[in-house]
Specification:
With 297 residues, the protein is of the alpha/beta class. 29% of the residues lie in helices and 17% in strands.
């Protein structure tokens, strides 16, 4: 979390009053626990799995993701603040207590977001969820069509590249969509634990089966400390799931500063402001996400 922490607390955007305030970020995942670091910024909740009405997270993954985007670090004295601590969260539960789910629930969650985007001020959709099953690996799959419908509605859709690298064509669905912004890990050379498995060089690599260069951008995802689904507690997780909300949080800052940007504008700006790490394009895409550079005039 050092990269995230330094950005926010050592002369980063938050110190200049840019916090993502007014920008709604929808997180499709395992739900959200009302951790103190969110305060009153959980603006909406939809449960496609158990159809409960009050926010909850029976796994912890979704809370971790949401706090990388918008946790304010209150419980830790600011040590574990997210990228855009002024943004508001809209949690959409599409995965069960084991972190598994069905495409139909993801599609239901996306449909709900599209209906609620104006009411809840949703500008960004974070999807740290993916499938590597053969039947979903086509651009014509239901998952790809679902995220592209959200994109066509004007939402900035940010999707994890998945943890099935380093082979070619290892980006998971719906990250294979040519419209959405797909995020890989910049630090997957570090050995980490992902779901109990030791992994290295795991970030999904392109191109897609349709020869589309993926991912678009890479960001830190190794050993990120963020909120858990117990009040006042934090945990460490790794993977492209964690890199994706770093990008989503950065985009929330960008949209606070430049609220009239379209999702296409956001994508172009990411491309123009990325830092080339001299890694293969199938690994880094446009390059490394530099938030300060992204926000510059």
């Amino acid at each position: 979390m050092d990269y995230v922490r330094n950005l926010i607390h050592c002369g980063g955007p938050a110190s200049r009053g840019i916090t993502g305030k007014g920008v709604g970020v929808a997180v499709l995942d395992t739900g959200i626990f009302p951790h103190i670091d969110f305060e009153d910024r959980i603006a909406g909740f939809y449960d496609a799995v158990n159809h409960r009405r009050a926010p909850y997270d029976d796994n912890g993954h979704g809370t971790h993701i949401a706090a990388i985007i918008g946790g304010n670090g209150r419980q830790s004295g600011g040590k574990y603040a997210g990228i855009a601590p002024g943004s508001h969260m809209i949690a959409v539960k599409v995965l069960d207590s084991s972190g598994n789910g069905y495409a139909s629930d993801v599609l239901a969650g996306l449909s709900w977001i599209r209906r609620q985007k104006e009411r809840l001020g949703i500008r960004i959709v974070n999807i740290s969820v993916g499938s590597y099953a053969g039947k979903y690996m086509s651009e014509d799959s239901a998952l790809v069509r679902g995220v592209e419908a959200a994109w066509d509605d004007g939402l900035v859709v940010v999707v994890a590249a998945g943890n099935h690298g380093p082979a070619n064509m290892s980006v998971t669905t719906p990250g294979i969509s040519r419209k959405v912004i797909t995020v890989g890990c910049s630090d997957d050379h570090k050995k980490v634990l992902v779901r109990g498995n030791v992994m290295v060089d795991y970030s999904g690599r392109g191109p897609t089966a349709a020869c589309i260069c993926k991912p678009e951008i890479i960001a830190p995802g190794a050993k990120v400390v963020s909120c858990t689904n117990r009040d006042g507690q934090y945990s460490m997780k790794s993977g492209t799931s964690m890199a994706t909300p770093v990008a989503a949080g950065a985009i929330a800052l960008l949209l606070e500063k430049y609220p009239d940007l379209s999702n296409r504008d956001v994508k172009l700006r990411l491309k123009e402001r990325a830092i080339d790490l001299k890694l293969p394009k199938k690994q880094q895409g446009w390059g490394f996400l530099d938030v300060e550079r992204l926000l510059q005039e």
